[in-house]
Amino acid sequence: xxxxxxxxxxxxxxxxxxxxxxxxxxxxxxxxxxxxxxxxxxxxxxxxxxxxxxxxxxxxxxxxxxxxxxxxxxxxxxxxxxxxxxxxxxxxxxxxxxxxxxxxxxxxxxxxxxxxxxxxxxxxxxxxxxxxxxxxxxxxxxxxxxxxxxxxxxxxxxxxxxxxxxxxxxxxxxxxxxxxxxxxxxxxxxxxxxxxxxxxxxxxxxxxxxxxxxxxxxxxxxxxxxxxxxxxxxxxxxxxxxxxxxxxxxxxxxxxxxxxxxxxxxxxxxxxxxxxxxxxxxxxxxxxxxxxxxxxxxxxxxxxxxxxxx
Length: 310
Prior knowledge:
Elements: E1 2-3, E2 10-15, E3 22-27, E4 37-43, E5 57-64, E6 67-72, E7 87-94, E8 97-104, E9 118-122, E10 125-130, E11 143-150, E12 152-159, E13 175-179, E14 182-187, E15 200-206, E16 212-218, E17 229-236, E18 239-244, E19 250-251, E20 254-255, E21 261-266, E22 276-277, H1 279-284, H2 288-309
Antiparallel strand pairs: 1-4, 2-3, 3-4, 5-6, 6-7, 7-8, 9-10, 10-11, 11-12, 13-14, 14-15, 15-16, 17-18, 18-21, 19-20, 21-22
């Protein structure tokens, strides 16, 4: 396999290798130097005794410079060689050789937590989501773990939703994004007001003392029942993009079920209360399918008028 003429510095491609999982890192040419690019490295976690079918290594991945982190949501550990606690594996690159440097685990992990379902990496900080973790009676309420590197990687924070969002299937940590001192956590199953499953996004800021403080809870500017706002998130600087996979837009007066939407938020103001959704941009983020449905609706009305004219 090869790639041709790419502008990016590096790409991370996930490849399937049975259920245990393999990640392939592909080096791309710099500044659009065209030509075939060979596959450089296939990464697999280095614990042969526990590399059994179902680990799902590669369920999530993130890369920053010469460090990569890869989630394995059903990764066994030494205490439970056939357990389903989940894990995240850190790899570092030296002279184009990727080597596993550490295996990250939750300090309070339990079977079926889904630890590693989402990962984010920036510099010496890693966020790992465990969206299936139970919080008391709330099944799959979710949690997020923060690791920082000082020599080795160590867990420094454990985050959970507030009481109102600690509900069954909230899935806090289904998605995570991390840039500098800003952490964003998707909670797609959280209520949006009275709308169950409308979804929410939590934003945290890291203090100078290293404490991750809750800054604000964001909801969709067009909340809906079971829309799952926050199922996917991306963060660039202070610009947040949040996906709402089951949003039902209204087209030609009729709802289109699960067509989906994505909303952009500006988090640049020092006061979190002033963070806003860029509604105009959000309206532009329509899927090609939605635009096609609009065109189709116009065509159908035109055809009906023609038939009546006959």
